Prior knowledge:
By secondary structure, the protein is mostly helical. The protein is built from three helices and no strands.
Amino acid sequence: MQTSFITRSVAAALFAAALAPAAFAQSASRADQTANPYAGAVSAQVCTQLELAQGITGDDCGQKSLSEVAFLKSKKDNTN
């Protein structure tokens, strides 16, 4: 009984050690949430659903912050 417990513990430790680098790499890639996804592009390739709903298209996509687009949405909602 002791042998199977030790064997399972060692197997679990080896499995966790094998997965640890992938877990740390994923958390490191999520660390920089302030990066602008459109920074390297001349213009945005795709407009977000919120931008399209507010009538923002073409080169204007990706130029406004989320709060600016939300402000435009609230402004549009209040005039109807």
